[in-house]
Every structure is written in C-alpha cells, then in structure tokens.
C-alpha cells in the first residue's frame, strides 16, 4: 500500500488548485500532515471503489478495440506505472495504462461514469471533461513529459467514450509553482493554507478561546446580512411546509398526483432501517458505550437584535 502522505499525486492536483469537489487545500493539508485520520470508506463506497478498479482492464480493452476499429494502430505498453517528477520527488503519479497510438506514446486514464456525473462530461472526442479530472490528467502530462492523455469514459457497457487532455505548457507553468509551494510552504513547513470555505475555518479552529473580539463595521454588516438571510430562509421553510401539507392532504392516500395526464409528483412509502439508540443504551449499555464516540464542534449563532 502506497503512503500518499509522502507525496502529491494526480488526484491531489485539483485540491491544491482549489478545483476539487472532494477536498479543499486545507483538508488536503490535514490529510498530508496526518491531522485528519484516514477515512475508512463504508461498505457501499468501498464496493464502488473496488468496482471501479476491477473495471479498469475492461475499459482499457474496450477503448483499444474501439481505436483499432477506427483504423488506428494501437499497442498496449504498460498498465499502472508510477512516475516521479524530474524536478521534485514529492510530485508523483500513476498512469492507468499507456499505449502507442499511431507511433505516439499516450497516457490513458479509465473512468467509470454513472448517475449525475454524466452531466459533467461534454461531447465525445473533445477536451470537455470535469475540471477536477482535467487537473489530474494535466498533472500526469507534467510529470511524464508527454503531449496527450486519452480519457476512456465508460458510460454504459455497450460502448466507451473517448476524451482528450492535451498538454498545455502555460497551464503546467502555472500549476507547478502552486504544487511546489503547497508541499514546501504548507505540508513540510506545517503551516495551513488560507481557508476557502466555512468548514475550513471550523477545521482549523475547532475550539474557541473564550475571549471576545470587537467587530469592524464590515463584519457587523455581514452579521446583520446573515441574520436577514436566516430570517428569509425561515419564512421560505414555513411556506414550504405549508405547501407540502396542502399537496399531501390532497394526495392522501394515493401514490401519484397527475395533471392533464402527466405525473406531477409521487408520495410513496419507503422503508428505512435505523438503530434504536435509546433502547440499545438501556438493554446493552456496554455495547452502546463501546461504539459511542464524542466529538466537538463550534456553532455560529447570531444574537437576535432587540426591537
């Protein structure tokens, strides 16, 4: 098992650049410095990871067959090869597979695309891939020195879509110093990057010091604006609840609501299995205590203004 805390990989590039939907720079810093415990995926998520890994050879073979059917000369060179950046040994990547395409050495990445993720991919045979993946592929081109990365996206078991990421030296020139700075100035120096979102601040300052600080005029205005937005949300939630009641009362006890022959909405029963924590504590206190964890979090509460 590779210790990913020792280097920055392709999947880290988007986080460093602030483009990742999975981690902010602060969260990545916490992972690399060991402050954030390694997440153990639940069974369903682990199955998803395992399934994606098992599909890689299938996707690889499908795209090679497709390229050959299109008249290209294709030779598989190697799979899952790791590379170290020639300038910085803390920048490393693993390429899913590599091919010789019409005499050109090409990086290739296999992706299994499903559900809502499909909407983030553009037309086939373009560079229109999700930005977080584009950063990963460009990172691989930076480390390996190659010109193109073929992206094989499996969106159904009938076919695989082909996308491209073409080396852009201007983009790489902008990425490299940010990656190097993140590693040296934050991971090695053990200094967190600037927070980007509210959760970053909660992560960096999980405990309060009990002190008070005087607000600037700008911050005082922000507090009042936040209170106004919260009030608006409360009114909208009340309106939402009233509409739900009106619609549900009309539907009951039916399943579907239609209008002019078309379905407007449904109200179906669905089963959910939950652990009765109160009963568990009463009947099996030792087991409940064994699997109970205590966490601390800070809550931002706005003091209501006096009329």
Folded structure, characterized:
This protein has 307 residues and is of the alpha+beta class. The protein folds into 2 domains: 4-200, Alpha-Beta Complex (Lambda Exonuclease, Chain A), CATH 3.90.320; 215-264 and 298-307. 43% of the residues lie in helices and 18% in strands. It is built from 9 helices and 7 strands. It has helices at 10-16, 25-32, 43-69, 131-144, 169-188, 198-204, 217-251, 277-283, 285-290, and strands spanning 74-84, 92-101, 104-112, 148-156, 159-166, 256-259, 262-266. The strands form 2 sheets. The chain has a 5-stranded mixed beta sheet with strand order 1-2-3-4-5. A hairpin with a 2-residue loop joins strand 4 and strand 5. Helix 1 (10-16) crosses helix 4 (131-144). The longest helix is centred in the C-terminal third of the chain and has 35 residues, at 217-251. The protein is globular. The mean pLDDT is 88.
Task: Give a topology summary.
Blueprint lengths: L9 H7 L8 H8 L10 H27 L4 E11 L7 E10 L2 E9 L18 H14 L3 E9 L2 E8 L2 H20 L9 H7 L12 H35 L4 E4 L2 E5 L10 H7 L1 H6 L17
Parallel strand pairs: 3-4
Antiparallel strand pairs: 1-2, 2-3, 4-5, 6-7
Helix pairs in contact: 1-4
The helix-strand sequence is HHHEEEHEEHHHEEHH
Architecture of the largest domain, CATH level 2?
Answer: Alpha-Beta Complex
Mean pLDDT: 88
Low-pLDDT residue spans: none
Helix content percent band: 40-55%
Give the overall silhouette: globular
SSE-based structural type? alpha+beta
Taking the sheet with the most strands, its summary is: 5 strands, mixed
Terminal-residue CA separation: 61 Å
**In CATH terms, what is the fold-level topology of the largest domain?**
Lambda Exonuclease, Chain A
Estimated radius of gyration: 26 Å
Instruction: Give the strand tally.
Output: 7
Total individual domains: 2
Share in β-strands: 15-25%
CATH class of the largest domain: Alpha Beta
What is the count of DSSP helices, taking H or I runs of 4+ residues? 9
């Amino acid at each position: 098992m590779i210790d990913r805390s020792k280097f920055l990989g392709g999947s880290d590039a988007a986080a460093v650049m602030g483009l990742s939907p999975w981690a902010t720079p602060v969260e990545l810093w916490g992972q690399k410095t060991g402050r954030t415990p390694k997440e153990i995926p639940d069974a369903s998520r682990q199955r998803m990871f395992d399934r994606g890994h098992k599909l890689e050879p299938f996707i690889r073979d499908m795209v090679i067959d497709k390229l050959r059917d299109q008249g290209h000369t294709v030779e598989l060179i190697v799979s899952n090869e790791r590379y170290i950046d020639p300038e910085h040994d803390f920048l490393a990547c693993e390429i899913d597979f590599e091919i010789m395409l019409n005499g050109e050495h090409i990086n290739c990445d296999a992706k299994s695309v499903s559900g809502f993720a499909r909407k983030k991919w553009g037309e086939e045979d373009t560079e229109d891939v999700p930005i977080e993946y584009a950063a990963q592929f460009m990172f691989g081109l930076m480390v390996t020195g190659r010109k193109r990365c073929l992206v094989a996206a499996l969106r159904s078991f009938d076919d695989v879509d082909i996308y491209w990421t073409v080396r852009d030296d201007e983009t790489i020139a902008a990425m490299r110093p940010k990656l190097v700075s993140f590693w040296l100035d934050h991971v090695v120096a053990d200094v967190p990057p600037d927070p980007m979102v509210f959760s970053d601040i909660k992560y960096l300052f999980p405990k309060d010091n009990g002190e008070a600080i005087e607000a600037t005029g700008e911050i005082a205005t922000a507090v009042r604006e936040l209170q106004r937005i919260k009030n608006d949300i409360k009114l909208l939630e009340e309106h939402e609840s009233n509409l739900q009641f009106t619609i549900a009362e009309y539907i009951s006890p039916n399943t579907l609501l239609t209008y002019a022959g078309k379905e407007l909405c449904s109200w179906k029963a669905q089963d959910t299995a939950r652990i009765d924590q109160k009963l568990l504590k009463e009947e099996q206190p030792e087991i409940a205590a064994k699997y109970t964890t205590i966490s601390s979090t800070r809550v931002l509460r706005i003091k209501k203004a006096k009329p």
